[in-house]
Amino acid sequence: MNEEDLESHGVNCPYCDTPFDLLVDLSQGSHATWEDCPRCCAPIQLRIEVSPVSGELSSLALGRDDDVL
């Protein structure tokens, strides 16, 4: 992981709506992962889509632990 591969994105927790900055590692390509909310500690499901051509973020989806992303 290189620092230039990290992008900061402002998001809101799907549980408590707290805004926070999420660091996304683009070097991993498209993937799904989990992040805990910094305020309520609820598990947030993330789906990260990275363009295979440009290596840029195509989409970022957040959901609750029981959502289907």
UniProtKB/TrEMBL annotation:
Domain of life of the organism encoding this protein: Bacteria
List, alphabetically, the InterPro entries matched: zinc_ribbon_bacterial
Q: What is this protein called?
A: CPXCG motif-containing cysteine-rich protein
Q: Which organism is it from?
A: Halomonas aquatica
Q: What is the lineage of its organism?
A: Bacteria, Pseudomonadati, Pseudomonadota, Gammaproteobacteria, Oceanospirillales
